[in-house]
Amino acid sequence: MKRIKKVLWALAVLLVLIIAGALIFVNTLKPDYSGEKTLPGLESTVNVFYDTYGIPHIYAENEVDAIKALGYVHAQDRLWQMELLRRVAKGRLSEVFGPDLVKTDKFFLSLGIDDYSAQTVANLDMNSDMVVLSRAYLDGINEFIKKGPTPVEFYLTGLEKEPFVLEDVYDAVGYMAFSFAMAHKTDPLLSSLRDKLGAEYLNDLAIDSDTSTVWIKNYPKVSMDSLGVDITNSVAQALEKLPIPQFIGSNSWVIAPEKTKSGKVIFANDPHIGFAQPSVWYEAHVSTPNYEKYGYHLAGVPFPLLAHDRNLAYGMTMFENDDIDFYYEEMHPSDSTKYKVASGWKDFEYVTKTIKVKDGEDVSFTYKNTHHGPVLNGIADQISQETPVSMSWIFTKPKNEVMDALHGISHATNIEEFKSALPKIHAPGLNIMYGDAQGNVAWWATAKLYQMPDSLSTKFILDGASGKEEPLRYLDFSENPSAVNPPWHYVYSANNQPDSIAGMVYPGYYLPENRAKRIVELLEPKNDWDKESASEMILDVTSSVNPSLITELIKMFDVTTLTNEQLVQVDSLKNWNGHYSLNSTSPTLYHRCEYFMVKNTMEDEMGTELFNKFLATHLFKRQIAWGANMAEGKWWDNVHTKDMVETRRDIVLKSFADAWTSLVEDFGPDPSQWTWDKVHTVEHPHPIGQVESLRKYFNVGPFPVEGSREVINNMGFPYDSTGLYKVNSGPSTRRIIDFSDVENSISILPTGQSGNPFSKHYKDQAEMYVQGKFRKMMMNQQEIENTAESVLIFNKE
């Protein structure tokens, strides 16, 4: 017995030692928010005050020292995120996650972002202010890599840390330029539909923006004289595995003094980005005697993409312009190394790349380039080799000055300096929003736009051989849409179609008018805006479009055929104001009906595969209201029912019946239980959280969440047969900057400031976010020092 007790005692001691060792080890992995460190190359001491939410307020005697410290503190909270982001363009995700990511790596290598970054860096002026500051930021990151604790994800994946270089910064920006990716989802699909069904079906699709919907108005204040299925599938497969989020859309509005209670500008912005953990933005307040910004940083990028100071504020939404075109290439009949151009035959350029694969053999592959860009055949296994399709992307064509633009806008002191940096943003297309303490409000669409031949639609795969379907010219920046201090006293953007300055409609993948209509509806009549009312507006969850659509369709119902429960719910839908609250049943019934209506209308012609791809496009979002309001059209008929020709009314009634049956199956026969909170939830996924046993440690959520697709508080979700609306994108931050009280401006992040799961700031904002709460963006130095939770001091050597 004594021997057993001794053994048990020894085991207990061993277990305690193991647990203690594990706790000590975990504690060493936490970020250091206090204490003193040496940072090589500093000219003087830098003080970093961390506020209650882990946001660093960096005070230094010069900007180079400040941004070096920024690199260090950014890395200690977000090194894993930085690592993944720089690996995308380099085709190095398989090195971390194994063979499942080979297709993704192939795809991104073929885009040429990394080669373009290397070419750009080779031609930089290394003495320019932009480069000096960028290298200081990288020095800070690399000092953390050298001396700081290794994030737990590196241990779990077996990944070695590597220093960061300038090419990594450009690769991160290049990924942002691509991440919209709507052309890949739309153009090949439309080409397939045209070839399969004919032009008559396409006439009833909302391919171009409806001129009767809300467009963004210009006010520049200047005088102004089957293969498709393969491509769509290949891109879907590549992006499906991507372990970092994509940029989606966004809202922003800037209210001029004439419409505010204080007589000062109010600025609001909430960029819509795929949800992930950590969330996209890293907040940091940098202050020196000659420079100050409270900014939002992309992982591995030294200059903030969103920022403000006491003098001006700026933010962004996605422009949604079309900057990718696909071309059919004609191969030489007897020489497969050549393809046809307008002047004759030209040699393909062959590019060979090698992908390192974790737990597998290296994968080498070769793809072809034309003067348009990479040939997708051979990159994706399922694309036929017979007809080459190349991709022309504006990002990799002109000189890359995007980093100079980000440096320029973050250092501008007035509207003219700010505007002068914008022409350097050639891609991605961005709506840049601006407001300042002098009372200016402005919006500029930034992108290298180009004009195509008249009547040519860039929404289909083009003819690459004739030379007749090429861009005619690049537009001057003055021809881009914009509005500066318009007489209606506000500017806004909601990814909707902008009106033209250049006398042409700018091709794009614009979202429907829903959010724009609601924004204008709220902004137009009110002239006493303040921070509180602006913060209520950014949380608005009411659709201006859906109730009118329901009213139109309910007219087709024969109430004598409905049960008492159905009559109650139809009456509730009829009186629904479009508000998406958690305890409401109308949103659940509406979206279930909407899904079945689109499915019953279009899947019979498209087929299941194409239909599911269609659901992932902005075209689908525009089609909902457009299509439902079409009294006649070929889509209404079900091609599988040979004995009858269905009408819109037939499809509406069948869709309601299908939706009702599916809701009863999912939630029972009591419609009062069909509440929005049961189907509309958000979870922020971490790549390691894909392992089920680790999900609760790395993922954040799920939470029931108010809102929906295409309301101001835009919570995007994919449509599928499950009827569960798992939110995968939404506001990546909500910011309200009031120039009458700039030091009390407010914001929120979706989860937390830190990407380190052992930090208390990993998810400390998550519940605040879903509850619609805000926190202060602190700028007052005395308040920051007095309330700081901790201080981290960087000393020079």
TrEMBL record:
Keywords: Calcium, Hydrolase, Metal-binding, Zymogen. It comes from Flagellimonas olearia. It comes from the Bacteria. One of its GO terms (biological process) is antibiotic biosynthetic process. Belongs to the peptidase S45 family. Binds 1 Ca(2+) ion per dimer. The keyword Calcium applies. This is Acyl-homoserine-lactone acylase. InterPro entries: Ntn_hydrolases_N (IPR029055), Pen/GL7ACA/AHL_acylase (IPR014395), Penicillin_amidase_A-knob (IPR043147), Penicillin_amidase_dom1 (IPR023343), Penicillin_amidase_N_B-knob (IPR043146), S45 (IPR002692). The active site is at residue 250. GO terms for molecular function: hydrolase activity, acting on carbon-nitrogen (but not peptide) bonds, in linear amides; metal ion binding. Its cofactor is Ca(2+). Ca(2+) binds at residues 322, 325.
